[in-house]
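User: hey, got a sec? need Alpha/beta hydrolase folded
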Amino acid sequence: MSALPRRIAFSARDGLRLSALEWPGDPRAVPLLCLPGIARTALDFTGIALRHRGRRRVVALDYAGHGDSARAADPTRYRVEMAIGDLMDALAALHLHRVALLGTSFGGILGMALGILRPGALAALAMNDTGPRIEPMGLEEVRAFIGRDPAFATIEEAAAFLRRILPPLGIPEAGWRAVAETTYARGADGRLHPRWDTRILAAMPREAGPTELWPLFHGLPAVPLLLIRGEASAILSADTARRMRAARPEMTFVSLPGIGHAPTLIEPPCLAALDRWLARLG
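Assistant: Yep! Here you go:
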């Protein structure tokens, strides 16, 4: 079986072209749907997909304005409610009737929304460094990053920049080039630009305090839950993680010392936890 994914293009209900990566697998198994963080793309899940392809279908989505999905003429198209609609369109277009959803950061929020809006479609939910309360300091750090286009001349420059500004992620020195390659792409001017539309920043709500989404979490159906947290995360606090675990004591929890937002998911404790989480679905 080829390790290379298939690129799928489909249309949202308003006609905007969206894109996903697909690794084929046993059609009898519950498929794994992977949703990246804001300003990230389907490429982030390559390692997870290569681990599980064949045993189950794996699909990773590029949001509007990200990766191979089209850029919108109007940046308000990038609002959260539009992303939720795009997720619903993706489920229909890609024939994903019931999924195990793995969501990093913003992707986990969309997973919680799916559990409320279409609970029958959610077979299991894994949330990577995200939850029903988003800390304002972490959100400001995200804002500062996603609206910026440094237009690097070389991948080495991009790698050095990311190594300097990103939180601790446990990435070895030699691994930063790969991070840069999944973050930036060569443009028509020959320079490296973000793999997302930096106008996404304009569509992000500005809250005076933390973003509170507890009704979404409390309304999740009784499905296998997994929470992954980097202990140095500025997005998901230790207190929020404790409250989540108290509300859903059956939820599996993985805590990664010294890791910030967001874990890469290829950390051995994450891989083992994801294996067990998916094994519960057969």
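Quick note: The CA atoms of residues 101 and 251 lie 15 Å apart. Let me know if you need anything else on Alpha/beta hydrolase.
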